[in-house]
Amino acid sequence: MSRFTLHDVREQTYKPRDSWWTVLLVDPLAARLVRFTANRTSITPNQLTIAALVLGGGAAGCFAMAEPVWLVAGALLFHLSFVLDCMDGKIARLKGNGSVFGSWLDYVFDRLRVLVCAVALMGGQFAATGDQIFVWFAMAIVFTDMFRYLNSPQMAKVRRSMRRNLTRAIREADAVEAAVGGGRSERAASAMAAGDRLSRSLSADQQLDEVVELRPRAAEDVVRPEADSAPAAVVPGPRATVPVVDEAALAAAEAEDEADGDEADGAETGKEAPTAGRRAREVQATELQRRFHTYFPWYIRFRDALRARRIRPHLVSGIEFQMGTFIVAPLAGAVTGSPWVMLAAIAVSGALMLTFELLLIYKLWLSTREYTRVLAGIQAAVPQAAPEGRPADAAEEAGEVPATAARPAAGAASGSEPVTIAERNGVASRG
Hints:
Layout: H1 6-13, H2 20-40, H3 45-65, H4 68-95, H5 100-129, H6 133-180, H7 186-196, H8 204-209, E1 222-223, E2 233-234, H9 247-260, H10 263-266, H11 276-285, H12 290-295, H13 299-307, H14 318-336, H15 339-380, H16 392-397, H17 403-406, H18 421-424
Antiparallel strand pairs: 1-2
Helix pairs in contact: 1-4, 2-4, 3-4, 3-5, 4-14, 5-6, 5-14, 6-11, 6-14, 6-15, 7-15, 9-11, 14-15
């Protein structure tokens, strides 16, 4: 049997960023339990998931008693249940014995634990007081938890869709650029530079301290081609010594691609040029976050201070909401002897979580606006891709440009608008 050290557990099972509750109050205990479990037992991740649900059921039974001592016992059992819930994933990563079914089991059992504990906690108080407000709070707890765990995958789906469309547009623009051999006009070169510069012309202090706007004549940052010269290249300006990349967004994008089986497109070997997939992820981590960083210049410093301690900036997520509802609130109610203090703690936890969810939605909305701009900038290079003096049909027949890029969509000759890359990707090129 393999012998795992505490260092092995931390290196192989700790997430790069996690909730502050997990980092500060769970991982120190869970890591030691994982080391013991991995070295001394043959317990599987799925067995730990089931045990976590059983402890959660025990917590619910204590909550239903509605007495202060039982509320304290329920809070402790719920915390231990969450520790086991964290251990199943750590064991799976450490021993490599996770499964797709285990992932489903973990998600469904987590939701069942919240449902059962919410009904028990509020149902016990309703039985003791007869006040219907506890019934409404039970429904509010379940709704708030489900909103978080429904909203998160939908936001990830939107980000993946944007990234795939950017990848497609970059591939098509690259194909056209290679075909015409550098015959792009200044406007087309500027548009490609705007869409593909990946913030390399901005230093960190510029990104943080200035309202950054694209300036068409930024000669120090963007080298434009003369006629019949090589394609435009984006080079760092005098202050651009460090690329400004939202590494958290980049890592999240790569993790989503890996989960979807798309990592091959973004993989790089040796010193090969970045692929379209990798460049799309970098655009998503830089250009699409630019407006948010402009509005909130302090965010990167705040985020980096938390990341140094492995804490994610989403300070009140679903985890903190559950802990506030099923640990902090019962303890507060037990100590004060007042169910209204318990309700206040639950209300604050829910309000804070919804506030952070709205901030994430706002950030996503800003990135979708930048996405439309960037995608339109990339596709602007394609309609002008045929060499000057040669019609698109002639360039296509000569094999210099792909047919899809050189020829307008059907119906264009009859007066209707041609289909652009942005429109084909489902994005209107509106400002």
